[in-house]
Amino acid sequence: MRKIQVQGVHHITIVGSTRQSALDFWEGVLGMPFIFEQPNLGKADESHLYFDPGDGRLLTVFTNEERVDARRPAPREVGSMEHLAFNVSRATFTQVPARLRERGIDFIERDRGFMNSIYLQDPNGMKVELACYKFETPEGHRAADVLMRAHQLRVERGDHHIGDEHLADAIEDLLAERERLEH
């Protein structure tokens, strides 16, 4: 049987509470430009708000003025989404803790070996991650190329997780391979 080949995320849709709550968080806190609003064509009592998460794709939120913010952690069970991650630059990442504290938003910061992460919750308890790779992707490659090679090096060396040395060596390997192919 032939598989269906996807080409990236088209959009993500979240069930939100009110229009203002969605605008305050997605545009106000996370800086995603609000693009437009229209009725939810599949559910007449909801509006459908569209935001740009920074890569030209879409994040959308279903809202209904009868709902209130859940203000509790979202369910974490089989079939649920654990979290939604967004890329931020290193410069922005270093500013996130202070900016969240200014707004009274709780967060957790983690070093993931190959990236740094800050986790917070939207007004309905959905976990949101702001992630920043610890490397610059070499021209002509994707971040996934660097990570696949770094993982391979980590496994070959018997290391617990991907670290800076794996990333540096992976980038060096990718650039050397490109050099060999060009000559």
TrEMBL record:
<dbReference type="Pfam" id="PF00903">
    <property type="entry name" value="Glyoxalase"/>
</dbReference>
<protein>
    <submittedName>
        <fullName>Catechol 2,3-dioxygenase-like lactoylglutathione lyase family enzyme</fullName>
    </submittedName>
</protein>
<keyword id="KW-0223">Dioxygenase</keyword>
<keyword id="KW-0456">Lyase</keyword>
<keyword id="KW-0560">Oxidoreductase</keyword>
<dbReference type="GO" id="GO:0051213">
    <property type="term" value="F:dioxygenase activity"/>
</dbReference>
<feature type="domain" description="VOC">
    <location>
        <begin position="8"/>
        <end position="133"/>
    </location>
</feature>
<dbReference type="InterPro" id="IPR037523">
    <property type="entry name" value="VOC_core"/>
</dbReference>
<dbReference type="GO" id="GO:0016829">
    <property type="term" value="F:lyase activity"/>
</dbReference>
<dbReference type="InterPro" id="IPR029068">
    <property type="entry name" value="Glyas_Bleomycin-R_OHBP_Dase"/>
</dbReference>
<dbReference type="InterPro" id="IPR004360">
    <property type="entry name" value="Glyas_Fos-R_dOase_dom"/>
</dbReference>
